[in-house]
Design brief:
Helices cover about 60% and strands about 5% of the residues. The protein is built from 24 helices and eight strands. The N terminus is likely disordered. A four-stranded mixed β-sheet has the order 5-6-8-7, covered by helices on one side. It has a two-stranded antiparallel sheet with strand order 1-2. The radius of gyration is 25 Å and the shape is globular.
Length: about 625
């Protein structure tokens, strides 16, 4: 049945034509379809994960944060007893999961499935408050799926919590202001969620904090005056401070607060390079990489064309009536069918995509989100300054500012960091779809955009199932090859490929045969999964020595530890000179890194060791050496 909400029955208007009540705009869903649309969005996002979430092991990344959580659950304190490169919320969550369910890595991934569902509901609900529900579904779900499709992590590693709490904070905090009133309770809860975002990942946390403070402050002053703005901002800040006080108090009681501050915001940030290198990373890396440059130019072309051709529609959107809410259900079915089709195509190993197309959907989405959210934010800000921004566009302004803050801050690590996509790409897509709907040839343009989104989802579904992980010198075969279970209780519930299972068994058996559970070992550079399944402790202060998370002072100190206290066993995934140099160019401005100190330390103590095994790791072109102390 067609559901419409006539404008005159729902709102009054200001002189500029803006709706007085903006809690649900005239283009948004009714409350019932609002909830149902969110549940459909959650179902589609979970469906996307089901074919692969427990059918691969991201060997060079899996278990990083779970092992940190394991250490916390067993009484060790981050920053004091081991080096941790991010705030501790995710690791504390995993410690709690371990306390409840034991050392089962799968439990943390089940938590990830629930978080994905909640994230989908939150992002859809935020966009459906401002845009027609059909377009909100396209924007929210497409951005989440393209982010999930990244092949550099497991489902619940750092990317998911890095956007989860920040998106929840934005969804709730922006409800604190509309054209009629302010609601400090929403500001308070949004502040708490922004505080949790700050404790999950530095960049996303800073985006949520400063992006929301700026957007809420500007909009509240504009709509309600400075006094109410001060009240909203103070309430938000109070909520933000509570999680930090709780976690900071715990760290202080354990003598780790000073080290935590230094590792997170002073010395530890050097692993990403200098401040200037981080701020301008998206520009210089894009300029030097022809593939990234193509994606960037494509995004600039799309955004510039949109603003030139459809600026009037963006400035004065047609009010009209609500879209048929039943279309949301049809779109959800189209997304589900597309995901199932992509999964089905992955059964055919002969399907091959050229190199440039492999990263076209996610890289284009990242740049389109970054460029588009920046352009729309600047456009709305200019309209606000010049008095042309409609009062009922205040929420659009806040979403644009928040989207760009998230995109910019998360591009400090890497230009196409998957978190850049959410919510920026979704916001840009839904803005374009809404603006062109009443333009000449608008329906044709909408159809092209919607088909483009579905084609991208088809491709990334196929890719995620055909090759679910490729990062750090390791790639996993398709999920259909994942038919083997392993004996390690920590990996119960996983289905792995034969080659991955054999690799785990081969290395762990050597560790077990040449050390006891009381003997520390060393795994280099980023294979802490072996600490977990072999039940061995690391010899070094740092557990992960990948170049963009381990600063040089940690590498140098750990190199000295290896020389003074040679571990019982060393598992060494060897890096080439080209690998070392590339890391130094990307994260050390071309300067020598502490990685070389660790490599030199292994070479220096090598005469004390027997070579147990040496082989090329499956799914990798790198050699693994297993050394046992004589």
């Amino acid at each position: 049945m067609r559901t419409t909400i006539p404008k005159q029955n729902n709102t009054a208007e200001y002189k500029d034509g803006s709706a007085k009540s903006a809690f649900f705009s005239t283009a948004s869903a009714s409350r019932s379809s609002f909830v149902i649309g969110g549940l459909f969005a959650a179902a589609v996002c979970v469906l996307f994960a089901l074919p692969w979430w427990n059918r691969f092991l991201a060997v060079t990344n899996e278990g990083w944060h779970f092992f940190f959580g394991h250490q916390i659950a067993n009484g060790k304190i981050p920053y004091r007893d081991f080096y941790l490169f991010v705030p501790p919320l995710l690791q504390l969550e995993m410690a709690a999961t371990i306390k409840l369910f034991g050392d089962r890595l799968l439990a943390s991934q089940i938590v990830g499935l629930f978080e994905i569902a909640i994230l989908a509901v939150a992002l859809y609900s935020w966009m459906a408050r401002l845009f027609p529900p059909k377009y909100a579904f396209f924007g929210a779900v497409s951005s989440i799926l393209l982010c999930m499709a990244n092949r550099t992590e497991a489902l619940n590693a750092l990317h998911l919590p890095g956007m989860f709490y920040a998106i929840l904070a934005g969804t709730v905090a922006t409800l604190s202001v509309d054209t009629e009133q302010t609601r400090t309770s929403f500001a308070f809860v949004g502040g708490i969620l922004a505080g949790l975002a700050f404790l999950a990942k530095q960049t996303s946390g800073m985006a949520a904090l400063f992006g929301l403070l700026f957007a809420l402050g500007i909009v509240t002053i504009w709509l309600h005056g400075a006094l109410k703005a001060a009240k909203v901002l103070l309430t938000f800040s109070l909520g933000w401070s509570l999680p930090l006080i709780a976690v900071g108090g715990w760290l202080a009681s354990q003598g780790a607060l000073r080290d935590a501050f230094s590792d997170l915001f002073v010395k530890g940030t050097s692993s990403k390079g200098s401040p200037l290198q981080m701020v301008f990373r998206i520009f210089w890396m894009t300029w030097e990489d022809p593939y990234l440059l193509r994606y960037f130019l494509l995004a600039v072309f799309i955004v510039a064309g949109f603003l030139i051709l459809f600026r009037k529609q963006l400035e004065s959107p047609s009010s009209g009536q609500v879209e048929n809410n039943n279309q949301v259900y049809l779109v959800a079915l189209l997304f589900a069918a597309t995901i199932l089709l992509g999964w089905g195509i992955s059964f055919y190993p002969r399907v091959y995509l050229p190199g440039m197309l492999v990263h076209l959907p996610d890289s284009s989405a990242a740049f389109l989100g970054w460029v588009g959210s920046f352009s729309l934010f600047v456009t709305y800000l200019w309209w606000l300054i010049t008095g042309r921004l409609r009062r009922d566009q205040a929420q659009h302004f806040m979403l644009a500012g928040f989207s760009f803050a998230m995109a910019f801050m998360n591009s400090l690590s890497w230009p196409t960091n998957p978190i850049v996509i959410v919510p920026a790409f979704g916001f840009v897509v839904v803005s374009i779809l809404t603006a062109v709907r009443n333009a000449p040839a608008g329906k044709s343009l909408q159809l092209i955009i919607e088909i483009g989104c579905l084609v991208c989802i088809l491709q990334v579904t196929f890719q995620k199932c055909a090759s679910p992980y490729e990062w750090g010198g390791w790639s996993e075969p398709g999920v259909h090859a994942a038919t083997v279970t392993v004996k390690y209780p920590e990996l119960r519930g996983y289905r792995l490929s034969a080659q991955t299972a054999q690799f785990l068994t081969r290395v762990t058996d050597e560790i077990d045969s040449h050390s006891t559970e009381h003997d520390p070992i060393f795994v280099f550079p980023d294979l802490p999964i072996f600490y977990l399944i072999s039940h061995r402790q690391p010899e070094t202060f740092g557990y992960v020595h990948y170049i963009d998370v381990a600063p040089d002072f940690v590498d140098v100190a750990d190199a000295n530890t290896l020389i003074s206290h040679p571990p019982a066993v060393i598992v060494y995934l060897k890096s080439s000179e080209e690998d070392l140099r590339m890391g130094e160019v990307n994260f050390r401005s071309g300067k020598r890194s502490g990685q070389r100190d660790l490599v030199a330390a292994i070479s220096a103590i090598r005469p004390k060791y027997e070579l147990l095994d040496s082989f090329v790791a499956p799914g990798s072109n790198k050699t693994v050496e297993i050394l046992a102390r004589k």
